[in-house]
Structures are given as C-alpha cells and as structure tokens.
Design a protein that fits this description.
Mean pLDDT: 86
Low-confidence stretches: none
CATH topology: Transcriptional Co-activator pc4, Chain A
Radius of gyration: 16 Å
Number of domains: 1
Helix content: 10-25%
Strand order of the largest sheet: 4-3-2-1-8-7-6-5
Largest sheet: 8 strands, antiparallel
Length: about 140
C-alpha cells in the first residue's frame, strides 16, 4: 500500500475586476501524490458566496511562474506589478471569465513542497494504470 501525501496551502488571491479594482479572495491549493499531475484549487470569496473549484496541471503552474502558458480555458503568466511579483491565472468558462492574481512566492512555495512529495518527471511511477482501467471498465 502506497502512502498518500497531501500538500495543502491557503493563499490570498486578488480577483481582478478592472485595472483599478481587485477583490480579495482565498484560494485553497491541494496536491495529492496519488493524482500526481493535478492541482486542485478552490476559490472562496470573502464573506458570502459560493466556492468555485478548478483543476490545473502542476507542470502548467510551474511554467506559469516563468512564462506565458496555457490555452483554452486556462492561461497563466508571471508579472511584476506594484512592487510585488504575481502570477496571473485567466479562467474561461461558459458562465463567465475571471482574472486572478496569485502571489508568486506563495505559488512557488506550494510547488516546491509538491516536488518534495513527487519529483518532477516521476509522476507516472505513482499511477496504477491497470487498477484505473479495471475501475473504469467495472463502472460502465
């Protein structure tokens, strides 16, 4: 039996409404070694409001610290603004779009911890494809 290791970080996030207006939110990032390619992000508005969940590629988040990446529903890129480093994440869904500004240092700290759990390039060794296929075939 493999041990499951989870990395969880809460980060302050800015929901960018316009050039002059950003609304503070919380983002809960979660990484599980048994799903080694994915990062789960739950965005919670301060005060009242429903939480929103997205899944990102861990590799995309890593690349987004250095350069523009992504296509379709998710895009990420680094920027320096107001004297602080941020990573922008643009999300697009049928219900609407959002631009979020994450603290780059917080994202990097989260990723470093995930790399200590599952080193980059070794993700496939964490998967049991036979078991996954068996489960899929028995569910259908």
């Amino acid at each position: 039996m493999r041990s499951v290791r989870t990395v969880a970080h809460e980060l302050p996030v800015q929901f960018v409404v316009s050039h002059d207006l950003a609304v503070p939110m919380h983002a809960a990032l979660r990484y599980e070694a048994d799903d080694p390619y994915a990062v789960r992000a739950v965005f919670q508005p301060l005060g009242e409001g429903a939480a929103v969940e997205w899944f990102f590629s861990r590799d995309m988040m890593t690349q987004g610290l250095r350069e523009h990446t992504g296509h379709g529903d998710v895009r990420m890129w680094p920027a320096v603004g107001s004297g602080r480093d941020v990573v922008y994440i643009a999300l697009h869904a049928p219900a609407g779009s959002a631009l979020l500004a994450f603290p780059a240092q917080g994202v990097e700290s989260f990723l470093r911890e995930t790399w200590s759990v599952v080193a980059p390039g070794t993700e496939s060794s964490r998967l049991d494809l036979d078991a996954e296929l068996t489960q899929l075939l028995t569910e259908s």
